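Arginyl-tRNA synthetase: structure, please.
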Amino acid sequence: MTPRGLEAVLRRAALRAFDLSEADVPFVWPRNDHAAEGADAAVALAPRLVGRVRDTLPKGREDSHRRVVCERISDEVDAMAEEGEPDAGFARVLADKRGFTNVTFTCEQRQNLLRAAADGPRYLTGRPWTGTGEWPRSELHEAGPLAQARRYARADARARIALAVGEQAPPPGPEGEASWRDRYLDTGHAELFTPAGRVLGRIGEDSARVAFCRSLPEHPRESETTGRDLPVLPSADKPGAWVRLTDANPAFRMRYAHAHALSSLRWADRTPAPGARGCHHGHGAKVRGLLFDGPSVLDTAARREEPHILVRYLEALTSAYDEWRTGSTTAAEPAQGPEPTWAALDPALPAAVAGVIGTGLFLLGVSAPTRL
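Here you go.
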């Protein structure tokens, strides 16, 4: 069950419950981070709908109106499920005191979410990338000052995100293999004589683009940082952690997570685990929740024209994936042989992570290596 799929179900329920037209029901993104404990998603449709249906409600306070509207929507979803509508067959639908509809997915719906997210472009933007044209990309070394290179990188990210979610179908995205090589790190630095060029020769283009897009202010102070040893404007003399190939470098962590996710699928194919028994979705709930929120995060980044929103989301997904992949599987699948990896037990999850992280990095203008 994808966010767009869940929104469509609750929209139909609202139309039925209050005899409304399509134009009367606003689009509201379902969110995992708004959900009550144990639920997969929450939709704040009722608070947005109260004003349109107030005349049909009993007299009462605003909070009671939200609850009444939410309960009617929830009851209608249950009725749709009883009538045999497959998309409405959730494990649980519950209205809370905020007026949010909390939805708990079935195991099959959770698995379908992961399968959908593996196609990152279609999942995040709601359509295939089969349009024409080119993705915007500036030559950062042509900038003089570091601040100018930062403006170039941020403008690229904004334009690429806008193109991805715009009215026209975007051009095809990344295809095939991608390596760790960086043209600025692999070539001589004789022509990299500007401050922007020198920092590219020191930390590489991918780290530079992430560094430039990671912070909120358009005009940061020269000494400003976005974390420990992470300058907003890294220089050749003071690159900070952006020069390192370790977890201290957010760009490296995200690119490594993408490469690891794809590599783990290849490893799992070569060393298959024993037949899985039962559902493993409990262990991956945090990763799955972040994957679910991906489309709404991208929509917000596009609407606000703030690429740092996408960067921070990808970092959070990377951290959740790292936590998931390093967890023990002994309790989940006791076996007589070597302990299987989570990727072997649940290959749909790393495939989904690779799809979303790879697409997100592409929209930032950052390459996503496919092998470790």
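Notes: DSSP finds 14 helices and three strands in the chain.
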